[in-house]
Specification:
Shape: extended
Strand content: 5-15%
Low-confidence stretches: 386-409, 532-537, 574-578, 722-737, 1461-1465, 1621-1625, 1644-1689
C-alpha cells in the first residue's frame, strides 16, 4: 500500500468535492463538472455541465453523462478496480495507459492488449525472468503474466490449459502468440534443451512465409488458423510440441481481392533465389503477366527486403533440420505454381470449347518442375471434368439416374480448373511444410498435460480500408471462426458462471445479460433436423448459409440469388434497412447481404457472387496430390509418398496430426471423432460443411481445457496502399502512432462484452473451491483448529469445518459465500489468502529447518560424547593391553585367532562372490526381459492406440450409417403414407369428376330435348319465352342491385381501410415513440443500476477496509500487551539472573577456598618428599651398620613392599570405585535429565492449563462485565424510559387540557389554507376559461379537505388514546420497579461469583509460583550435585597421580636398598608410611561419605519429585472438582489424565525396579553374612593356632604360620575396606586381629621370616594357587574346587 503525498491527498479531496463526469458525444467523450442549479431551473432529465478543456457551460441529457473516476485510477492496471465502471472511464484508462506505452491491461481474469504497431522493448529475456515463478496478483499486466498464470495452473492442477487470442485483423494476435510460446519454452525449458527460442523463431518464420500475406488492413495478415500444442512432462518441462493448422485460404494463390497480394513466399522466392536456383526454376526470364497475378515487386527496397526474408527463411529451414533436397522440392512446387499462372488457360468457346493452356511453353516449364509430362499435367487439370462434376452434382456421390446435370451447375471454365490445380498444389505444399515442422518438434518423451495456444485470423471488414467491395467467402469463414470463439468466451464468462451460481443456490442480483452471438453463428452453420436424409427437395426448416450453399450447389438450377432468398426467409426480413430488428439484412444489389457480427456492432457486407463454386468438387484439386506422388523427381515423390501413408491430414482440411505421444494421439482422436460423428460422418466430404467441422474440432479441443482469453484491440484502422508494404516491426513509430480511434475502440469493447464481463466479475464470486480442497489448502492458516481437533482428526462435515475455518480467519462476511459443495469468494480474496498461506508456509518451513538443525546439532554433540567415551575406553584398553602383551597365552591367542577368522572370512568371501555372480546373471536376465517387455509394451500401446482410433472411426461411421438408415427409413415410411393419402384423394377426385361428367351429359340431353320440344309447339314456346325474358330482366336488375351494393360496400371498406391505415400508422408512431422511451428508460435504468452496483461495491470495499483496520488495531493491541508481558517477564528474568549470579559468586568463592586448600596439601606433599630425600641421604650415610640392622631393614622393606602391594590393590579398588562413581554419575545425569524433561513437560502442561484457566476465567470475567454493563445500560434505559414516560404523561395532560384549543386553531388554519387554495383554483379556472378544469387539482383539493377532516378526528382520538396510555404507563412503572429489584439481586450474585473466581485464580497463581520455585530449587540442587561429582572426580584423578608418584619413589628406594644392604631403617620411616596409608584410607572414607551424601541428595530429589507428583495429583483433584464450572476445559483435562496414567505406569515401573534392587541388596546382605560366618570360623582357628604358637614360641618351624597369619590379616583389612561392616561380629574380629598383630609384633625381629631373595612369601589357603597381574585375577582350586575369574575395572 503506497503512501500518498499531501498534494495527492489535496487533489483527491478537490476531486471528491466537485462532481466530475464524462460527457459522451459522437467524437468521443470529454471531462466536465456538474454545475449545481436551483430546483426547477432545468427540465426533468437535463443537467448543466461545464467542460474542462474550454470552460463552456452546456445543458445536456442525463443519458449522455457518465461518472468519472479519481485521477489516481487513470492508469489503473486492472479495469475491475475502477470505482465507476462505464465505457468512458474504461476508454480513458486505456487511452492513458496507451499514451504511456503501457499496452497491456487486466480486465478481471482476461487481458487486454492494444497493438502498438511497433516492437516495444518489453519482450526481452530479462523481462521474461521478471515474471518467472510469480503469481498473477504480483505482476504487472503483460502477455507473459498470462503465460505464467497458465503454466502455474498447469503445474498445480495437472489440467490442460489453453490461451485463446481474440480480436480484429491487425490487432497483433500472431505476435502475442509468438511471445507466449517463446516465454513458455524459455521459462519451462526442455530435457536436453530440445526446444529453444531459436527453433521456435524459425517455426514462425516459416509459417509467416507460407501462410501470411498482405491485405487491405494488415501488411502481414495470417491466412490460416493454427493451434500450438506444448506437451509438458512430470517435471514441468516441455516434452514435445506440435502445430495443427486449418482453414487455409488456399484460393489466395490464384484469386484474391483487388489490391491484395498472394502468400509472401512467392515474393521471397522471386527476389531471393540465387542464379543456380533461378536457372533450375526457369526464373531467368519472368512472365510479363500471370493468370494468378503473381508478379515480382517493382520497388528496389521491396525487392531487397524480400531477398533478406528469403535468406532468413532458408536459415530457419536449416535450423529445423529440413535438408537441401527437401528445400529444393518446396521451391520446385512453388516454381511450378508460378509457371502455371504464367501459362494461363483458354477462354470459354475457344476452339470449340476445348480446354487447354494459353501458353504451352510456360506449361512445359511447370510440368518439368513437377516431374511429369505436359500431357499428364494437362490431363490432370482439364480432363475428366464432366465426369467429376457430374459426380459432385449427384447427392452423396451416387450416380445420377436423371441423366446429365443442368448446364448452369456443371459448366466449369478452363481458368477455374487451372486455379483448382494451383490451390490443390499449394494446399499439399502447406501440409508438407507443417509436417516438416512437426517432425522437428516431436519427441518420444512421456508427457503429462498440454498447453494450447490458439491463433486465428481476426475479424475483417473491407469498409475499414475504405473499400466498396463486398467481403469474400474466405473472410466469412474467418469471421465465423472469431464468432465461435466469442461464443465460447460468452459461455465461459456468463453462462457457466450463472449456472454454477444456480446450482449452488447463490442468489446474485445481476442485470439481464444479453444473448450470445449465437444468432449470427446460426445464420452461418445451423443444421436442419433432416440433414441426414437422402433428398434433394427444399424444405422449410431453417438452416445456415453453409448448408444452403451445399444444397444449392447440387440442385439443378441453383444460384446465389435463390440461396439468399432462402437464407432471408429463415433469418431476416426481405425489406432490410433496420439493423436493430435482425442480424441479417439485404444489400443494395441482389447478390449482396449484410451480417451483423460482434452482437451487431460490426456489420459486414458480403458479395455472394461465385460462392457456389466453393461447394463444388473440382477433380483438378484432388489430382494435385496424385500428381505429386507420381512425380518423376525423387525428392518430390519421396516426400509425398512417405506422407501419404500416415494420417497427417484429416479429410483434406486439418493438417499437423503427426506425433506418437499420448497427448498427440488423444488430440488426433478427438478431431477424428468430430469428423466421424453424426452429421459429420455424412457431410465430411462437403467443402462447405468442412469449414464448420474444422471449427467444431478446434472448439471441442479448447473446451476440454482451462481457457485463458486475451483480447487484442486495434487502436485505429488505416488502409494499406496496394503496392506498399507497411513496416510492422523494428521501425520507430511516427508522431501519431500512439493515438487511439475512440469510436473503433468503443465498438470493439461493446462487441466483446467486456464491460458486462467485468460487472459479473466484480459483483459475483469468480473464485471458488471445493470444501475439502479449501480446507486442506488453507488449514495451515488456523493452527489453533489443528491443535484443538488433533492432527488425525477425521472431518465428517466439510461445510461446517470450512465455516469454522473462515470464522477463525476473520474474513468479512461479504467477501465469501457458502454454496452447497464449494465456497465462493469475491475477486482478490482468494489471492490474499494465498499470500497469507505463502507467508505462513515460509514461517513454518523456517521453524522446521531450525528444529532440524537443532536436532542435528544435538545428535552431533551426542556423537562427540560417545566418541570421547570410546576414545577413553580405547586408551584404557591400550593400557591394559600393555600389561598383558608379554603373557605367553595372550600371544598364542592373538596369533591363532586371526588365522581362524581368515579361513572363515575367505570361505565367506568365496560364497559371497558366487552369490554376487548369480545375482548379476539374474539381474542381466531380468534387465533383458524388462527391455524386451518394454519394447513390446510400447509397440502394443502404439498398436492399441491406432486400433482404438480406427475402431472409434469405424464405430462412429457405423453409428452415422445406422442413424442415416433410420432417418431414410422414417422418410420412406412418411413418403409412403403421403403417397397413400394422395392416391386416396386422387381416387375420390376421379369419382367426383366422373359423376360431374355424368350430370353434365344429362343436362345437355335435357337441354336438347327442351329445344326440340319448343320447335314442335309454338304456343307453349311463347309462354316459356315470356317467362324466360322476365327472368332475364330480373336477373339483370338483381345484378345491378348487387353491383350497386357491392360498390357501396367496397367504398365503405376502403374508407374503413384508410381509417385503419391511418390508425395503424398512428399506433406505429406511438409504439416507436414508446420503444424509444423504453430504450431510454432501460438505458437509464442500466446506467443507474451500474452506478448503484459500483457504489455498493465501493461501500463493501470501505467496509472490508474498515474490517482490516479493526483487525490491525486488535493485532496491535494484542502485540502491545504481549510486549508489556514480555517486558515484565524480562524484568523477572533479570532479577532471577541477579540472584543466580550471587549464588554463583558464592560458589566461586567456596571453590577458590577449596583450591587454596588443595594448594596447601600439595605443599605438604612436597615437604614430605623433601623429608624422604633427607632420610634417603641419612640412609646413604649410615654405611657402618651391622647385619642385624640390615636384616631388619630388609624385613621393613618387605613390609613396605607388602604395604605397597596392598596400597596398589586399594588403588585398583579405588579406580573401580571411581568407575562405578562415573557410571553412577552418568546414570544420575541421565536420570536428572529425564526428570528435568518430564518436569519441564509437566510444568509446560501446567502452564498451559493455568493459562487456559486464566483465559477462561478472564473470558468469564469479561462476560460478566459485559452482562453488568448491559444490565447497567438496561437500568439506565429503564430510568430514561421512566423519565420519558413521565414527561409524556405531563405533556399528555397538557395536551388533554389544551387539545381542544389547538384543534380549533389547527382547523382554522386548515380552513384558511383551503380557502386560499380554492381562490387559487378559481383564478386558474378563470385563466384557462375554455378548457375543462384539471381533475388532478380538484383531487388534490379534495384530498386536502379530507386531510383536514381526518386531522380533526385524529385529535379527538388522540385525546382518548392519551388517557389509555397514561394508565398503561402506571402499570409499566410497577413492572419496571420489579425488574429493577430482580436485576439488583442478580448483580449482587454475579459480583459474589466474580469475587470467588478472582480468589480462586489468586490461589491457583500462588500454587503455580510455589511449584516454579520448587522446580528451580531442584534444578539448582542438581547442578550443585553435578559440580560436586566433578570435583570428586578431579580429586580421584589427583589421588591416582599421587599413587604413580609413590610407586616411582618406591622403585627408587628399592634400587638404593640393593647396594646398601647393611644400612638401617628407622622406625620413623615406617611410621610415616603407615601415616601415609592412613591418610589415604581417610581420603577413601571421605570419598565414600561423599558418595553416600550424593546418594542421599538423589533420594531427596526423588522425594521432591514425589512431592511434586503428589501436589500435581492434588492439583488435578482440584481441577476435577471444578469440572462443572469449567466445561470447556474437559478435553484438556482428559489429556492431563492420560499423561497422569502414563506417569503412573512409569512410577509402577520405577517401583518394580526398586523392588528388584531391594532383592539384590538382600542377596548381597546374605552373602555378606555368610562371609562373616566364614571369617568368624577362620578367626576361631586363628585363636587356636595362636595358643599353639605360644607353646612353641622357641621353635624354628613357625615361619609359614607367621606368614599365613600376616596374609590373613592383610586380607581381612582389604575386606574391611571393601565392606565397612558395623555389626558386633566385626568388633570381635577386630579384637582378635589386634591380638594377632601384637603377637606378630613380638616376633617381628626374627630373621627367619625373610626368604633367600629378600621378599615376603605369599600365603594362601592350602590347595589354592593365586596369580596376580594388572587388572586380571585368576584363582585355581586344586582339590575339586571351583575356578573363579573376575575382571577388575
Amino acid at each position: 500500500m503506497t503512501v500518498k503525498t499531501e498534494e495527492q491527498i489535496a487533489a483527491e479531496q478537490a476531486w471528491y468535492g466537485s462532481e466530475k463526469v464524462w460527457l459522451v458525444h459522437r467524437e468521443g467523450f470529454s471531462l466536465a463538472t456538474v454545475v449545481k442549479t436551483e430546483a426547477g431551473a432545468l427540465p426533468e432529465g437535463r443537467l448543466r455541465v461545464q467542460l474542462e478543456h474550454d470552460g463552456s457551460v452546456l445543458d445536456v441529457d442525463e443519458d449522455d453523462i457518465e461518472k468519472a473516476n479519481p485521477p489516481s485510477l487513470d492508469r489503473c492496471e486492472d479495469l475491475a478496480a475502477l470505482l465507476y465502471l462505464n465505457e468512458s472511464s474504461v476508454m480513458h484508462c486505456l487511452r492513458q495507459r496507451y499514451g504511456g506505452n503501457l499496452i497491456h491491461c487486466y480486465a478481471g481474469p482476461n487481458l487486454l492488449v492494444i497493438n502498438p504497431l511497433s516492437t516495444p522493448s518489453m519482450y526481452s529475456e530479462k523481462v521474461m525472468h521478471m515474471f518467472k515463478g510469480c503469481r498473477r496478483e504480483d505482476t504487472a499486466p503483460h502477455i507473459y503474466s498470462v503465460a505464467q498464470s497458465a503454466y502455474r495452473n498447469l503445474l498445480t492442477t495437472r489440467q490442460d490449459q489453453s490461451v485463446v487470442l481474440l480480436g480484429k485483423s491487425g490487432s497483433g494476435k500472431t505476435t502475442n502468440c509468438q511471445h507466449l510460446v517463446q516465454y513458455l519454452v524459455s521459462i519451462a525449458g526442455s530435457t536436453g534443451k530440445i526446444f529453444s527460442a531459436e527453433k521456435w523463431q524459425a517455426v514462425y518464420t516459416i509459417l509467416e512465409a507460407f501462410g501470411n500475406s498482405s491485405t487491405s488492413i494488415n501488411t502481414n495478415a495470417s491466412r490460416f488458423s493454427h493451434v500450438v500444442s506444448l506437451d509438458f512432462d512430470q517435471a514441468g518441462q516441455v516434452a514435445s510440441a506440435s502445430i495443427q493448422t486449418m482453414l487455409l485460404e488456399k484460393l489466395r494463390v490464384s484469386r484474391r481481392p483487388e489490391a491484395e497480394s498472394t502468400f509472401n513466399v512467392f515474393y521471397y522466392l522471386l527476389a531471393g533465389a540465387d542464379s543456380s536456383l533461378r536457372t533450375e526454376l526457369h526464373f531467368n526470364h519472368l512472365a510479363e503477366s500471370s493468370a494468378f497475378g503473381i508478379l515480382p515487386h517493382s520497388k528496389p527496397e521491396d525487392k531487397q527486403r524480400a531477398s533478406q526474408q528469403f535468406t532468413k527463411l532458408q536459415a530457419a529451414m536449416k535450423v529445423l533440420g529440413v535438408s537441401a533436397d527437401e528445400q529444393k522440392a518446396l521451391w520446385l512446387i512453388l516454381g511450378a505454381v508460378y509457371h502455371l499462372g504464367a501459362a494461363g488457360a483458354t477462354k470459354d468457346g475457344h476452339e470449340a470449347g476445348r480446354r487447354q493452356f494459353a501458353r504451352h511453353e510456360w506449361a512445359q516449364k511447370a510440368a518439368y518442375l513437377l516431374g511429369c509430362s505436359l500431357e499428364e499435367l494437362s490431363s490432370a487439370i482439364f480432363k475428366q471434368q464432366a465426369k467429376g462434376l457430374q459426380h459432385s452434382a449427384s447427392f452423396r456421390g451416387a450416380p445420377d439416374d436423371g441423366g446429365p446435370a443442368d448446364g448452369s451447375g456443371s459448366k466449369v471454365t478452363a481458368l477455374e480448373c487451372l486455379e483448382a490445380m494451383a490451390s490443390g498444389l499449394y494446399s499439399e505444399l502447406f501440409t508438407l511444410v507443417v509436417s516438416l515442422i512437426n517432425r522437428a518438434l516431436k519427441s518420444s518423451q512421456h508427457s503429462l498435460c498440454s498447453l494450447l495456444v490458439v491463433d486465428t485470423p481476426g475479424f475483417q471488414n473491407p469498409r475499414w480500408a475504405q473499400q466498396q467491395r463486398g467481403a469474400t467467402f474466405e473472410e466469412l469463414c474467418h469471421n465465423y471462426t472469431q464468432e465461435r470463439l466469442q461464443t465460447l468466451f460468452h459461455e465461459r464468462t456468463f453462462v457457466h458462471e450463472l449456472d454454477r451460481y444456480k446450482e449452488e443456490n447463490i442468489e446474485l442480483a445481476l442485470e439481464d445479460i444479453e444473448s450470445s452471438p449465437s444468432l449470427s453463428v446460426a445464420a452461418v452453420d445451423q443444421a436442419s433436423a433432416q440433414a441426414l436424409v437422402r433428398t434433394l427437395a427444399r424444405t422449410d426448416e431453417a438452416r445456415g448459409l453453409l448448408w444452403l450453399m451445399e444444397e444449392e450447389a447440387v440442385q439443378p438450377g441453383g444460384t446465389e440469388e435463390t440461396m439468399l432468398d432462402r437464407l432471408f426467409s429463415y433469418y431476416g426480413s426481405a425489406q432490410g434497412g433496420h439493423k436493430g430488428a435482425s442480424l441479417l439484412l439485404r444489400g443494395d444489389r441482389p447478390h449482396l447481404f449484410l451480417l451483423g457480427h460482434s452482437h451487431g456492432t460490426d456489420w459486414v457486407e458480403y458479395d455472394t457472387l461465385g460462392w457456389l463454386s466453393h461447394a463444388k468438387h473440382n477433380p483438378a484439386s484432388q489430382n494435385a496430390a496424385t500428381l505429386l506422388q507420381d512425380s518423376q523427381k525423387k525428392n518430390i515423390s519421396g516426400l509425398f509418398l512417405g506422407r501419404a501413408g500416415g494420417a497427417t491430414v484429416l479429410s483434406g482440411s486439418i493438417a499437423g496430426l503427426e506425433g506418437s505421444s499420448q497427448l498427440a494421439l488423444r488430440r488426433a482422436t478427438s478431431m477424428r471423432k468430430t469428423f466421424t460423428t453424426g452429421v459429420a460422418a455424412v457431410k465430411k466430404r462437403s467443402l462447405c460443411i468442412q469449414v464448420k467441422l474444422q471449427v467444431d474440432a478446434l472448439i471441442d479441443m479448447v473446451r476440454r481445457s482451462k481457457v485463458h482469453f486475451v483480447h487484442c484491440l486495434l487502436p485505429k484502422a488505416e488502409p494499406v496502399a496496394g503496392g506498399d508494404l507497411r513496416v510492422t516491426h523494428g521501425e520507430s513509430p511516427d508522431a501519431g502512432l500512439m493515438t487511439l480511434d475512440v469510436g473503433l475502440l468503443r465498438a470493439q469493447l461493446r462487441g466483446s462484452k467486456l464491460l458486462d464481463a467485468l460487472r459479473i466479475y466484480r459483483q459475483g464470486y469468480p473464485d471458488h473451491m471445493v470444501f475439502s480442497e479449501f480446507r486442506r489448502r488453507f488449514d495451515v492458516l488456523a493452527p489453533q483448529l489443528t491443535k484443538k481437533h488433533g492432527r488425525h482428526y477425521i472431518v465428517t462435515d466439510e461445510k461446517r469445518a470450512v465455516e469454522e475455518l473462515l470464522e477463525s480467519l476473520d474474513l468479512e462476511k461479504s467477501n465469501y459465500h457458502m454454496g452447497l459443495s464449494r465456497v465462493f469468494f469475491r475477486a482478490g480474496t482468494l489471492s490474499r489468502l494465498e499470500e497469507q498461506r505463502d507467508v505462513q508456509t515460509r514461517r513454518n518451513i523456517t521453524m522446521f529447518q531450525a528444529a532440524c538443525r537443532g536436532h542435528l546439532a544435538r545428535q552431533a554433540f551426542k556423537k562427540r560424547k560417545i566418541q570421547d567415551l570410546a576414545i577413553r575406553c580405547i586408551q584404557k584398553n591400550i593400557k591394559k593391553n600393555g600389561g598383558v602383551k608379554d603373557w605367553p597365552w595372550w600371544k598364542l591367542f592373538t596369533t591363532v585367532r586371526p588365522l581362524i577368522e581368515v579361513q572363515l572370512t575367505e570361505e565367506q568371501i568365496r560364497g559371497k562372490d558366487e552369490e554376487i555372480q548369480q545375482l548379476k546373471q539374474r539381474l542381466e536376465k531380468v534387465e533383458k526381459e524388462r527391455n524386451e517387455l518394454r519394447l513390446n509394451t510400447d509397440r502394443l500401446e502404439s498398436r492399441i492406440t491406432e486400433l482404438s482410433s480406427e475402431l472409434a472411426d469405424e464405430r462412429n461411421t457405423g453409428e452415422s450409417a445406422s442413424q442415416l438408415l433410420e432417418t431414410e427409413t422414417s422418410e420412406r415410411l412418411r413418403l409412403e403414407r403421403d403417397m397413400k393419402d394422395l392416391q386416396a384423394k386422387f381416387d375420390s377426385l376421379k369419382k367426383q369428376t366422373e359423376s360431374m361428367e355424368m350430370e353434365v351429359m344429362e343436362a345437355r340431353l335435357i337441354r336438347a330435348s327442351e329445344l326440340n320440344g319448343e320447335m314442335d309447339d309454338d304456343d307453349t314456346g311463347g309462354e316459356w319465352r315470356l317467362k324466360y325474358e322476365r327472368a332475364i330482366r330480373e336477373i339483370e336488375f338483381t345484378k345491378k342491385r348487387l353491383q350497386q351494393e357491392s360498390d357501396d360496400k367496397l367504398e365503405a371498406e376502403q374508407q374503413s381501410r384508410r381509417q385503419l391505415e391511418r390508425r395503424i400508422s398512428d399506433l406505429q408512431a406511438d409504439s416507436e415513440e414508446t420503444q424509444r422511451t423504453v430504450q431510454q428508460l432501460k438505458k437509464k435504468s442500466q446506467r443507474l443500476t451500474a452506478e448503484l452496483q459500483d457504489t455498493r461495491l465501493h461501500l463493501e470495499g470501505q467496509q472490508s477496509r474498515n474490517h482490516d483496520l479493526e483487525k490491525k488495531q486488535r493485532r496491535f493491541d494484542s502485540e502491545l500487551s504481549a510486549v508489556q508481558e514480555e517486558v515484565q517477564r524480562e524484568k523477572s528474568l533479570r532479577e532471577k539472573l541477579a540472584r543466580e549470579k550471587d549464588v554463583l559468586s558464592g560458589d566461586l568463592f567456596s571453590l577458590r577456598q577449596q583450591l587454596e586448600d588443595k594448594d596447601l596439601e600439595v605443599c605438604a606433599v612436597n615437604l614430605k618428599l623433601d623429608q624422604l630425600d633427607a632420610e634417603l641421604q641419612d640412609l646413604n650415610s649410615q654405611e657402618s651398620k651391622d647385619e642385624a640392622s640390615l636384616a631388619k631393614m630388609k624385613k621393613q622393606l618387605r613390609d613396605l613392599e607388602a604395604k605397597v602391594k596392598d596400597q596398589e590393590e586399594e588403588l585398583d579398588e579405588q579406580a573401580g570405585t571411581i568407575q562405578m562413581l562415573e557410571q553412577a554419575k552418568l546414570r544420575l545425569e541421565m536420570e536428572t535429565e529425564r526428570l528435568r524433561q518430564t518436569h519441564s513437560k509437566e510444568i509446560e502442561n501446567k502452564d498451559d492449563e493455568v493459562e487456559e484457566i486464566r483465559q477462561s476465567c478472564s473470558k468469564k470475567l469479561k462476560q460478566m462485565e459485559v452482562q453488568l454493563e448491559e444490565e447497567y445500560d438496561e437500568k439506565q434505559k429503564v430510568l430514561k424510559e421512566k423519565r420519558e414516560l413521565e414527561s409524556k404523561l405531563v405533556s399528555a395532560q397538557d395536551q388533554v387540557r389544551g387539545g381542544d384549543l389547538e384543534t380549533e386553531k389547527r382547523l382554522k388554519k386548515d380552513l384558511k389554507r383551503t380557502k386560499a387554495l380554492l381562490a387559487d383554483a378559481q383564478i386558474m379556472l378563470d385563466h384557462i376559461k375554455n378548457n375543462a378544469p384539471s381533475k388532478r387539482e380538484i383531487a388534490q383539493l379534495k384530498n386536502q379537505l379530507e386531510e383536514s377532516e381526518f386531522t380533526c378526528a385524529a385529535a379527538v382520538k388522540a385525546r382518548k388514546s392519551m388517557e389509555v396510555e397514561i394508565e398503561d404507563l402506571h402499570v409499566q412503572m410497577e413492572d419496571i420497579s420489579k425488574t429493577k429489584q430482580a436485576l439488583e439481586e442478580q448483580l449482587s450474585r454475579l459480583q459474589r461469583e466474580k469475587n470467588d473466581l478472582q480468589s480462586r485464580m489468586e490461589e491457583d497463581q500462588e500454587d503455580l509460583n510455589e511449584l516454579m520455585k520448587k522446580h528451580k530449587a531442584a534444578v539448582a540442587q542438581s547442578a550443585q550435585n553435578l559440580a560436586q561429582i566433578s570435583d570428586l572426580q578431579a580429586q580421584l584423578e589427583d589421588a591416582l597421580r599421587e599413587k604413580q608418584d609413590v610407586q616411582e619413589k618406591l622403585q627408587a628406594l628399592q634400587s638404593q636398598l640393593d647396594f646398601q644392604e647393611q644400612s638401617m631403617v628407622e622406625k620413623s620411616l615406617v611410621g610415616r608410611q603407615e601415616a601415609r596409608s592412613r591418610e589415604l584410607e581417610t581420603k577413601l572414607e571421605f570419598e565414600k561419605t561423599q558418595v553416600k551424601r550424593l546418594e542421599s541428595l538423589v533420594a531427596r530429589l526423588k522425594e521432591n519429585v514425589e512431592k511434586l507428583t503428589e501436589e500435581r495429583d492434588q492439583r488435578s483433584s482440584c481441577e476435577n472438582r471444578e469440572k462443572e464450572q469449567n466445561k470447556r476445559l474437559q478435553r484438556q483435562i482428559r489429556d492431563v489424565k492420560e499423561e497422569l496414567a502414563e506417569l503412573a505406569k512409569k512410577e509402577a515401573e520405577a517401583s518394580r525396579k526398586k523392588h528388584e534392587l531391594e532383592m539384590d541388596i538382600e542377596s548381597l546382605e546374605a552373602a555378606n553374612q555368610s562371609l562373616q560366618a566364614d571369617l568368624k570360623l577362620a578367626f576361631k582357628r586363628i585363636g587356636d593356632l595362636q595358643a599353639a604358637i605360644e607353646d612353641e614360641m622357641e621353635s624354628d618351624d613357625n615361619e609359614d604360620l607367621i606368614n599365613s597369619l600376616q596374609d590373613m590379616v592383610t586380607k581381612y583389612q582389604k575386606r574391611k575396606s571393601g565392606t565397612q561392616g558395623d555389626s558386633d561380629t566385626d568388633s570381635e574380629v577386630e579384637d582378635r586381629i589386634d591380638g594377632v598383630k601384637s603377637w606378630l609384633s613380638k616376633n617381628k625381629g626374627s630373621p627367619k621370616n625373610l626368604s633367600d631373595d629378600g621378599s615376603l612369601k605369599s600365603s594362601s589357603p592350602p590347595g589354592r594357587t593365586r596369580y596376580y597381574f594388572d587388572g586380571y585375577e585368576e584363582e585355581e582350586e586344586d582339590e575339586g574346587g571351583s575356578a573363579q575369574a573376575s575382571f577388575r575395572s
